[in-house]
Amino acid sequence: MDSVALEPSLYTVKAIFILDNDGNRLLSKYYDAELYPSMKEQKNFEKNVFNKTQKADNEIAFLEGLTIVYKSSIDLFFYVVGSAQENELMLMAVLNCLFESLSQILRKNVERRCVLDNLDGVFLVVDEIIDGGVILESDPQQVVEKVNYKADDNPLSEQSVAQHITEKLALTTNVLQSAKEQIKWSILK
What we know:
Layout: E1 15-20, E2 25-30, H1 39-53, E3 60-63, E4 66-73, E5 76-83, H2 88-105, H3 112-117, H4 119-129, E6 130-131, E7 134-135, H5 140-147, H6 158-188
Helix pairs in contact: 2-4, 2-5, 4-5
């Protein structure tokens, strides 16, 4: 019998989303374009996940061949979705990092209104933790520092947004340059 080898992949998170206590989407990012390509499919999936988890006391669910870790806080539900083969502890580390980072940024007031009022900062936090499905950071302190979001300052200055974009562009440029070099050397061999 042939053993089926899974192709290695850096994409460890399929999706991340935050729903309110009625199951309505506040934020969502899907990193696997094939998983739920349309908005309608995404919202149906989110509704199914919400219906399964809203009254459960667990922190993990399995639905439609996916591993889902989740946490609720006041009037919000936080979800991190991975493949069925994904390590639940790694997904939970992402979820805890997201929640703790937001808790610091929102001064421990992690509720619907505060999330909506600071949605730009929430998106930056998500982008610092996950980029294209790849987990970049799981330490909330590092995330808050990178986002440059101080609890005593005004939320998110234009300079910190520009700095974040500049850092992302520099990272992308470095990755593209490295890939270009690798392709060049593989052709020359």
